[in-house]
Amino acid sequence: MSIEKHMVEHPKFGQYEQTIGSSLTEAGHIPLEGPEGTVLGWIMPSEHATDAFVGSSTGKIVFEIGSGNGERVVEPALKNGAKHVYAVDIFATHLELVKQAAVRIGRPNDVYTAVISDQWWNKELQSSPGVEAILLPLTGVIPGDGIVDLMIARQVVQFGSPESFFRFLDLAASCLRVGGEVWTINMSPFLEYIYDCDIDLDGQKVQRGVRLSQIVARNREFMLGVRKQPGGFARVCDCLPETTMEDFLYFDRDTGVGLVNRWQETRRARGLASHLQIEENYCFGPRSIWKRNKLVGMPEYLNRENHVLVLKKV
After folding, report:
1. pTM of the entire structure?
2. Into how many domains does the chain fold?
3. Residue 90: which residues within 8 A CB-CB, separation 6 or more?
4. What backbone phi and psi angles, to 5 degrees, belong to 159?
């Protein structure tokens, strides 16, 4: 094993120790198993933002999109006294594990699950969006409109496009009560995965890959309305032919503001109120990370691997 430890200073979370492992398992990631023993991905270790979300769940109705096995949000929220938790995922096997966890901790009647299509966010934006209309087709139980206190999507909406994120925000605006919050936790451009891609931001073949400075500059231009797409939006299938993943959307502060602004434009065009306003918008590094990211060794990037966007319904 090769473990390094650093002290990180964060403007929100203060000083904390960050462990850097040379493999996913060393960094505390848990494989998320799919059908027939396949590994669909890795569940990131719990971190400050998720802990803060769970810590505020007492007595609340919680809704998680892409719950996986429920280990990071559903189960801790129930243990913390959440009133009810709704969990949706595209795999029924994951939701069975969620139900088993609820039984194990003595709260089987306080969890509601639903299997949804992996295409739910690829439809056209609706003129009258509601929770059921957005998530159909589905099997199971979902929250009604206007009843959710806290909604979260953890390492989920990064696997989409700006347009799919608009549909996600439509879902949040529909399910949340006034004063409720939606949290998204996603990878940032500082994670570096796309820098070895030989397709540049304009779809042209290059030799050196995409530069971080290019991505960040285009994210700012997107926020200012100069560009139609953020620089951190990548067609991963162009970079990694062996992957089945198509889109990837990296988040930073400018991307978050730009996406919310564009979503609000779509709401106005549909004659709908926006309802959601940004409460928090920042980058952070988990307490335990994987050393695959070459930027990890640079102190100025130690706490910028992931991004949190919190919006409140007003």
Report:
1. 0.91
2. 1
3. 66, 115, 116, 117, 118
4. -90, 30
Residue 182 near residue 311, CB atoms below 8 Å: yes
**CATH number of the structural domain spanning residue 276:** 3.40.50.150
CA 25/CA 178 separation, integer angstroms: 40
Give the C-alpha distances (Å, rounded to integers) separating 100 from 58, 62, 105, 126.
Answer: 21, 18, 9, 35
In a domain? residue 14: no
Residue 71 falls inside a structural domain: yes
Question: Could you give the angle at the alpha carbon of 61 between the alpha carbons of 55 and 64, nearest 5°?
Answer: 80
Q: Note whether 33 and 53 are within 8 A (CB).
A: no
Domain that holds residue 176: 40-282+304-313
The phi, psi pair for 178, rounded to 5°, reads: -65, 130
Q: Which amino acid is at 230?
A: P
- The whole-angstrom separation of Cα 46 and Cα 51 is 7
> Starting from the edge strand earliest in sequence, which strands make up the sheet with 3-10, in order?
3-10, 14-21, 288-290
Structure tokens at 136: 């159909």
Q: What span, in angstroms and rounded, lies between the C-alpha atoms of 312 and 314?
A: 6
Alpha helices in 45-127 (DSSP H): 48-55, 74-79, 92-104
Interacting residues of 36 by C-beta distance below 8 A, sequence separation 6+:
none
- 114 in any annotated domain: yes
Sequence-distant (6+) residues with CB within 8 A of 298 are: none
Phi, psi of 280 (to 5 degrees): -140, 145
Task: Give domain status of residue 17, yes or no.
Answer: no
What is the per-residue pLDDT across 235-291, written as a single tens digit (0 to 9) for each?
666 666 665 667 889 899 999 999 999 999 999 999 999 999 999 999 998 888 877
